C-alpha cells in the first residue's frame, strides 16, 4: 500500500477527502476521478505518466479508499458532484483538464452541467452516464443493503473480491486485487461498501442525460471493448450524444481499463490532452 498514498485532506460537506498531486506545480492541471467500487489507486500508472507534463490531482471520493467512511454519510452522485465542485475551488483550478472513469464520469458531468464547473477538456472512460445502468447484482444489493451489510466478514470479503475481479477482462494481479478490496473490509469498510451501492440512484444521471448536447468542450470517450459491466455500445451512444466527441475503443480491456490496458489508455489520453485548443 505504501506505493500510493494520498497525503492531503480536504474537509468537504460529505466528510474528509484524501487527495494528492503529482508533477510540478504550475504545469497545466489534470484531475482524475475514479469510479465505484474503486479509488484513486486505479489511476496510479496513468497519473505518473501524465505527471511528466502536467500537475495531476487525484482524490478518493467520500466513502471510498482512504477518505472518510461514516454511518449516515451522503455518498450519492448528487453529493459527490457537489464535493468535486468544492475541491476544484479549494485547489484553485478554474478550467482544468478532467479525466473520469465509471461513477466519476457521472460526478464530473453533474458538476459541469448543474454546478457550473468549467473544464478545458473532458475525457470519459467507461462512464456511468446513460440509462439504464446497474447490473442485476448491483440492483439486488441496493434493494437489500441492510441484509448484505450483515454478512459474515469472510463471505463479504469473497463477494467483494469476486465483484471487483469481474471488472477486468484479462484478470487482475492478486496484489492489485487485494489493494482494491482492502478499503471495503472490516469496520467501517464493510458498511461503506453497501452504503455506496444503496445510494446509487439512476435519477442522478437522468437529471443530466438530456443535457449532454449542451457540452461544448473537447470531449473524448474511451471504452474497453470487453467491458461486461457497461457494454461498448453505450460508448458509441454517448459519443454520438456529445457534439464533436471523439470515440476511442480500447481493445482487450474490460471495464477497468486502467488496469487492463494502461499503456493504450495513457497513449489515447496523452494524444487527446495535447491537442491544440
From TrEMBL:
Keywords noted in UniProt: Hydrolase
GO MF term set: hydrolase activity
Keyword Hydrolase annotated: yes
Sequence ranges assigned to domain AB hydrolase-1 in this UniProt record: 29-262
Keyword Membrane listed: no
InterPro entries per record: AB_hydrolase_1, AB_hydrolase_fold, Carboxylesterase_BioH, Epox_hydrolase-like
PANTHER family: HYDROLASE ALPHA/BETA FOLD FAMILY (PTHR43194), PIMELOYL-[ACYL-CARRIER PROTEIN] METHYL ESTER ESTERASE (PTHR43194:SF5)
Protein known as: Alpha/beta hydrolase
